Amino acid sequence: MQKEFPKDFLWGASTSAYQVEGAAAIDGKGVSQQDVINQERHEKFGFADASVASDHYHKYKEDIALFKEMGFTSYRFSIAWSRIFPNGDGEVNQEGVQFYRDLINELKANDIEPIPTLYHYDLPWPLVEKYGGWLSREVVDDFAVFAKYIINEFKDDVKYWITINEQSIIVQYWTQKCYILPEYQDNNQLRYQINHHMNLAQAIAVKYVHEVGGLAGPALGYSPIYARTCKPEDQIAALNANDLRNSYYLDVYFKGYYNVAALTYLKQNDLAPEMAADDEKLFAENLSDFFAINYYDSNCAHACPEGAERRWSGYNLTGKKGDMSGFETHPGFYQMCSNPELKTTDWDWAIDPIGLEYVYRDLYTRYKIPFMITENGLGAYDELTPDGKIHDDYRIDYLREHIKATKRAMDLGVEVIGYMPWSALDLLSTSNGYKKRYGLIYVDRTDDDEKECARIKKDSFYWYKNVIASQGTEL
Ligand code: BG6
């Protein structure tokens, strides 16, 4: 039998605003770039748009009652900037503030720690129209006003703040996570420029959180990168990939400067961001306090000859194994590839619980700060059977092995304070609509038909409830 997790361990799960809330044009909310992006994806690929999503805006009390039934002691959610500042700047929409106050009060009334994310992909659309959104450094000032307002408003109820979600993934999939006007889409230096603006915004948010006595961390979309073979040139390629895809972000948040090899590579290839003289000083003065890790898979890389074609990360839109549109390739530096040793999800994400153990061990050795898992989950086709059940044993297997990996790392001294898998309930996937599901709670809707969004407990709901009740000893 597994030893108990600590008594104060935060057990819960996660969501983000535009992926669950719906009510996209209700109670004063402004349009966000995700409303626009998902409308376009609906027209192009048939995925659901974000107008109703999982209707959490209207059903949050029912959802929190289900979280309580599972035994949650934490819930990670995000705050939609366009619900608070419908224009991105200017007047505050008090109805939007009231929604999050009610949500937080309801969580606290149920002894669930609220863990808000300040930014999860949903920039107010008027800022895209005004200056191109994250492309412009002007966005940093507008974000600072929003962040300061929210942090002050909820400072008495929130201890842990997640600043910005997955900058590394935003760089890889920039047109999916940000609205990029077509005329800029061929300029790949802008991927890193956007990220630089986000680094400034995130450092300012950390500063405000520290001013009110809270703790802050960015949510890292983190996949460790293995070398495909033990050939020295593949090992160096994996190191290069780790520097550019992982340490490039970590070093800014936790050391206060850009990873040297990665930045040098970007400069040599005209991809480096423009920065002002004091920018790294701002980073260094506002270091983050904990790792918020979003872990789904591990990645693999091999050596890539000079002269190969540069490519950016591909994706699988169909949910048919092997339909990946390509792998990131940086000539002379590395090429990403699939890992022949690992099984994958239907969307070609490698399933690798040991990879999570590797992340804990590697990052704790290098940075020695605590972790919380803010996403971890299996995107899968779920079937609602005629008896009204969802037998998601594949999800249970996935989560069980990742919790075991967490415990193994903790048994070797790594500090982990919480586990919040993705996702508390089914939601609008960022890449694949409602066919690909992650929730512990099923939401009865499809891409084409919103129905009533009824909540149904999956088998994983009952399993996780028992995991929490047994303090992680019954897996
Ligand atoms: C993370 C994001 O990248 O992965 C979530 O923070 C997202 O917003 C999750 O939903 C799973 O990705 P996808 O594309 O399957 O929804």
UniProtKB/TrEMBL annotation:
<keyword id="KW-0326">Glycosidase</keyword>
<dbReference type="InterPro" id="IPR033132">
    <property type="entry name" value="GH_1_N_CS"/>
</dbReference>
<keyword id="KW-0378">Hydrolase</keyword>
<comment type="similarity">
    <text>Belongs to the glycosyl hydrolase 1 family.</text>
</comment>
<dbReference type="Pfam" id="PF00232">
    <property type="entry name" value="Glyco_hydro_1"/>
</dbReference>
<dbReference type="GO" id="GO:0016787">
    <property type="term" value="F:hydrolase activity"/>
</dbReference>
<dbReference type="InterPro" id="IPR001360">
    <property type="entry name" value="Glyco_hydro_1"/>
</dbReference>
<protein>
    <submittedName>
        <fullName>Glycoside hydrolase family 1 protein</fullName>
    </submittedName>
</protein>
